[in-house]
Design a protein that fits this description.
Aspartate Aminotransferase, domain 1, alpha+beta
Length: about 140
């Protein structure tokens, strides 16, 4: 049976990433990339992770308490974060690449190819800050 996603995430704000997940039957995440994702959010308040089947290495997502998704780990080395459009060029300069397979505001990072975890943590925080600002209507 293909992995799905909890109905609580099936909202308009998550439409791009939920559609991406649904298009990729049994989207998986290597345990190391899932760990990169969860570690990147350390210290951020009110962040949770979700995985439909940890034992089978399903994809991982990061979300706020309001179930807004801002990060996803999948494959053997792919992390993607929802980045403000005005920061995309900067994210690319730091080693990311736009990832329109999810949506226009998603950037893919390959941590093993980057110069350390601080960049990943930085982009996770930027994605989180954007999500919190969107929730607040700023």
């Amino acid at each position: 049976m293909p992995w799905t996603i909890d109905d609580r995430f099936k909202t308009a704000v998550n439409q791009d990433v939920v559609s991406f997940i649904m298009r990729h039957e049994n989207l998986s995440a290597h345990d190391e990339i899932a760990e990169w994702l969860t570690r990147s959010a350390c210290g951020l308040p009110d962040v949770s992770w979700y995985c439909p089947d940890v034992q089978s290495y399903a994809y991982f997502i990061l979300h706020t308490l309001d179930d807004r998704i801002f990060g996803i780990a999948f494959g053997q080395r792919a992390l993607a974060y929802r980045i403000p459009l005005e920061k995309i060029v900067e994210a690319v300069a730091d080693g990311g690449r736009p990832y329109p397979d999810i949506g226009d505001d998603w950037v893919l990072f390959a941590p093993g190819e980057m110069a350390g975890s601080e960049l990943i943590r930085r982009w996770c925080k930027i994605a989180y800050d954007k999500t919190v600002a969107d929730e607040a209507g700023w």
